[in-house]
Amino acid sequence: MIVSVVWIAPAALATISDVAQRRLHGEPSASLRELLWSGGDWLVYAFLPPPIFAVSRRWPIERPHVARRAVLHLAFALLFCVGWATAGKALELALRLLLAPQETHAFIKAAGDQFWPKLGQDLLSWIFTTLPFGVVVYLCIAGMAHAIRYFVEASEREVQMARLSEQLAGARFAALQAQLNPHFLFNTLNTVTVLVRDGDRTGATRMVEQLSDVLRRTLSRHRANEVTLEEELELVRQYLAIEQARFSDRLRPTFEIDATVLTAAVPSFALQHLVENAIRHGITKRPGAGRVSVVARRDRDMLVLTVIDDGAGIDPQAAVPKGHGIENTQERLRALYGERASLTVVKGADGGTVATLRVPYREMALESDVADR
Predict the structure, then answer these.
(1) Mean per-residue pLDDT over the chain, rounded
(2) pTM recorded for the entire structure
């Protein structure tokens, strides 16, 4: 709308220029028809920016279609020039018929059968005359449309990155909070005490090292919205090792990991949260031994992570209890992948709970690999 209104200025200047040029050269004053056409030809531009903006939105010049889209916009620029020139000549003819009907009818009668060929020749000549300037105008308007689009997208990305940083901080805090949960720490330290009392210094040392490693890994992920599956699995294994020592024979973790997907990108802490939920809301509520299975595989262009437990299970009709972190994880998935990712938590066929995380498959380098370069 603003771009269309801008053309009022050159229309007014063109009219003033026509009057001034005639005065400077001592020519007769321009008629109303001539003045209206001088300004009206520029005002035709006011109707053309909206279609150009629509074309730019529909076919933006961006990777991987830069060359193809550039050629497409060049073709649209030529059509734009033809449209502008045709509309200008149509305006000129309409003004002649409206303001000088007798003169126009006399001209048409004198031209006879040659009227339409002459009109076509005049239009073609005008198209070639306005072609260079028309192409420049189209490219300027299209460039403005792209600039506005890129600015809006950049602003949206900044907001999205700020939201992701906030969500990552929340996820890291939630993971740290789970590790620093008084019951978790008390039980872990109590397990260490029992191991020391039983003379199992090796087991006690290993327990302390595992707790230290879990805390270190949790605190070290400052701004990483994504990590490799291998890094996430290391955190999960350390967490499960501590829980397994606490629960002794009550916890039986298993892993079914496709080795080819270890370098795939996963949302930081997402898998750890699912495993934590399986233990807190499933295994701890089961009187006997429980199993937690972590499965990772590739399904075409998707990475599928599944956490299965045979604990108390969930009520399919009930809302997800607070503290599961499911809503936070789902919001992070939407921010990172849009509608391409999903997280479902359902009751298992044989009881327990099945949590399935699906994200677009994309490989990323290990942090150690990047550091070595």
Answers:
(1) 77
(2) 0.50
